[in-house]
Amino acid sequence: MSIKPHAAPQAAAQAQGTLKVEDGRTGRSYELAISDDTITAKDLRQIKVNEGDFGMMSFDPALDATVVTRSEICFIDGEKGVLNYRGYPIEQLVEKSDFLEVVYLILHGELPTASERAAFEAEVRAETCVPESMVRLHEALGRNVHPMSMLTAALPALAGDFEDSAMVMDPANRRRQIVRLLALTPVIAALGYRRRNGLDLAGLRPRPELSYTANFLHMMLDQGGQESQIHVAFERAMDALLVLHAEHELNCSTNAVRAVGSSQVNPYSATAAACAALHGPLHGGANQAVLEMLEQIPSVEAVPAFLESCKNGERR
Q1: Of 7 and 113, which is predicted with more confidence?
Q2: What global pTM score does this model have?
Q3: Quick count: other Cβ atoms within 10 Å of Cβ 214?
Q4: Which residue, 138, 137, 182, 181, is CA-closest to 159?
Q5: What is the tens place of the pLDDT at every residue in 203-247?
Q6: For residue range 259-303, what is the model confidence (pLDDT) as tens digits?
Q7: Which residues, 6+ apart, have CB-to-CB distance to 231 below 8 Å?
Q8: Exposed e or buried b for every residue in 159-168, given b needs 16+ CB within 10 A?
Q9: Percentage of the chain exceeding pLDDT 70
Q10: How far apart are CA 254 and CA 49, in angstroms?
């Protein structure tokens, strides 16, 4: 692999030290440790009016000025158009890697070797199936149900197929569920697509010999046993889309899955919480708006006029 990671962009080095605080109520002074230009909220608890006092707390609605975790997975600078995974620039990953390689990078911190890539792909392929419970669930859903609502309903139900999914404190078991989620989320998404478009649900047949992305497209588009021919450009575009959306720091859905997962619920239910957050118009709604916009362009010939209308401020 010819991609090389960049050093993750960092803010100017912050001097470590202490913050001296004087409580005007009591006249007492406190020193709070500073690390990476932050103080620990728990350190405020020592600031009390009297011994029976609960202690000082920070008040920060919407976590507007609060750091909740340290991560080396992703770095975003929207103003400068920077998106890095584990230090690798997104433009290089899109060009030279595929989605499963990027998932491996996010999980392990480095891109896989050829043998590691093959082993990881085999893990995912081995879990790619069509659970009968998911077919029955989607048959019960109305065709007009929003795709994100279908996915949000199906994910926690999927936990019922895997009794070991509750063993969240076992690292090996957690990895097993990660692989299953990677393998089965495209299956569930394809079932939702087929349900909304009146295609046979029982006819969904995964083809694990295809690439991850080509198999996803095949499961959505295959009709009545007629093998769908996935154009290589279509596959590449979809794969690039998956890579671009693989990780976006501590956004709304990531925060949701962390909060719900902290209860030690099974990973499928925690991931459903993330899907519910992504459904919101201020989060994943932008992607839906793009798809709706594309549907407004009737032909290739109409593209220049459409772009001109965007430049003129007539539409976004």
Answers
A1: 113
A2: 0.86
A3: 20
A4: 181
A5: 899 998 999 999 999 999 998 666 668 899 999 999 999 999 999
A6: 999 999 999 999 999 999 999 999 988 888 888 888 999 999 999
A7: none
A8: beebeebbeb
A9: 94
A10: 37
Q: Can you give the pLDDT at residue 12?
A: 45
Inter-CA distances, 117 with 23, 29, 149, 231, Å: 57, 56, 33, 24
Tokens of 20: 């001296």
Nearest to 267 by CA among 168, 184, 169: 168
Could you tell me the sign of the dihedral formed by the alpha carbons of 269, 271, 276, 277, in that order?
positive
Low-confidence winner among 66-75, 98-107, 136-145, 154-163 (lowest mean pLDDT) = 66-75
Q: What are the structure tokens assigned to 235, written together?
A: 């596959």
The residue ranges of DSSP E strands in the chain, in sequence order, are 17-22, 29-34, 74-77, 82-85, 88-89
Residue 76 has phi, psi (to 5 degrees) of: -125, 135
Residue 11 has what pLDDT? Answer: 44
User: Which ranges of 109-226 does DSSP label H, i.e. alpha helix?
Assistant: 114-126, 132-140, 147-158, 171-196, 212-221
Q: Which residues pair with 32 in a beta bridge?
A: 19
SS3 state at 77: strand
Question: CB of 269 within 8 A of CB of 245?
Answer: no
Tokens 């996935």, residue? Answer: 230
| Three-state DSSP state, 230 | coil
Do residues 91 and 102 make contact, with C-beta atoms less than 8 angstroms apart?
no
Say which amino acid occupies 28. Answer: R
